[in-house]
Amino acid sequence: MQQHKDGPTVALLAFPGSNCDQDAQKAFAHVFGWQLEVVHASASAFARRPDAVFIPGGFSYGDYLRAGHLASIAPIIPALKAFIAEGGAVMGVCNGFQILTEMGALPGALLPNARQRFVCDQVECLHEPGPSSCHGRERGQTLRLPIAHGEGRYYIDEDGLAQLEAKQQIFLRYADNPNGSTAAIAGICSENGKVFGLMPHPERAYLEHIGGTDGQCLLRAFAATFV
Amino acid sequence: MKLQISVQLKPGILDPEAREIQASLQRLGHTQVDTLTVAKAYVLEFDPKKVSETEAWSCAQQIAAEHLANPVAQNFQIDRVGAAEEEA
User: Fold this and answer.
1) Which domain holds residue A144?
2) Is the pLDDT of residue A210 over 80?
3) What total of structural domains would you count in chain A?
């Protein structure tokens, strides 16, 4: 795939069972004019150092063992860990968020939804104010975003939650907690504000005729961390 | 030898599956059950000719702690199973 000559290199990690990779490619092409560079999970390294990494949703490795765990020990993961350790920008959406928590890049865990059902819906989310660019310019705004997950109940213990709150790492909360997440958390970032994980799908919310454009501001906020 | 690793949610974390099973059993009159917990079991089988018992336990411990259980939300327990059939 040809990289847009002026655009940054954004690697799209594809695992067996990823199914939002094409959504992500179309969203980044539409919003930024960038072609994502697909990197398969079986690769042992990035062909060239990316400027950012996007981990799409899906059911990597069939969600066996726990959603995201088998992906978190795939061959490409040591390279991803090294990229994160160097301060690289990463966004993981849905299964991508599960993978980031399973590999320890973000705190907490994603458990089966409290109501034991797969939830597929458009939900209101609150874009929380905070210091990182992932919080966006328009702080405190309400975003309407699609969700589609069976294991999206974000869990973290009291101490962990207190730390997330104190360091303003929670950038997205559900208005009407659809899965029983701790503190209605829908998205968090790392302490350095470079690694983002969220269950809602901004890459499916960038055009009016597919249900709205509210995802664009999250993609732009992510892009602002590496452009 | 066989080692069974049981993984379950830590106490205090909502397990809707366990709650629903217990509620249904209570409705059928099994009110003696105080708490019902759901656990997932993995059974690892080791060839005693190739692996010592100590090595097997240490291997199971590592696999359970690093992969089968998520330390954020789950506990695990390892038990030896099938010892009676091995002797038979």
Assistant:
1) 10-223
2) yes
3) 1
Task: Provide the pLDDT for residue A2.
Answer: 45
Please report the pLDDT score of residue A133 as a whole number.
Answer: 61
C-alpha distances out from residue A203 to A89, A220, B50, B75, Å: 17, 11, 51, 35
Tokens encoding A51:
């400027």
A91/A6: higher pLDDT:
A91
Q: What CATH number corresponds to the domain at position A19?
A: 3.40.50.880
pLDDT band of A139, cuts 50, 70, 90: low
> Given this model, what pLDDT does residue A130 score?
67
Chain A residues touching residue B23 (CB < 8 angstroms) = none
Q: Which of A65, A69, A109 shows the shortest C-beta gap to B73?
A: A109
Residue A201: active-site member: yes
Cα A37 to Cα A8, A29, B55: the distances in Å are: 10, 12, 43
Q: Any idea where the domains of chain B sit in the sequence?
A: 2-87
Domain B2-87 carries which CATH code? 3.30.1280.10
In this prediction, residues A168-184 reach a mean pLDDT of 96
How far is the C-alpha of A171 from the C-alpha of A151, rounded, in Å? 20
Token look-up 């959504």 returns A23
Q: Do B16 and A115 touch (CB under 8 A)?
A: yes
A43-50 mean pLDDT: 94
- Calculate the dihedral angle through the C-alpha atoms of A37, A41, A45, A46, rounding to the nearest 10 degrees: 10
Residue A55: inside a domain, yes or no?
Answer: yes
pLDDT at A143: 92
Q: For residue B44, list chain A residues with Cβ-Cβ distance below 8 A.
A: none
Domain annotation covers residue A2: no
B70 CB within 8 Å of a chain A CB: yes
ipTM above 0.90, yes or no: no
Report yes or no: B69 at the A interface, CB cutoff 8 Å: no
Average predicted confidence (pLDDT) for chain A: 92
Instruction: Decide if B29 touches A, using CB distance below 8 A.
Output: no
Residue B56: pLDDT over 70: yes
CB A47 within 8 Å of CB A40: no
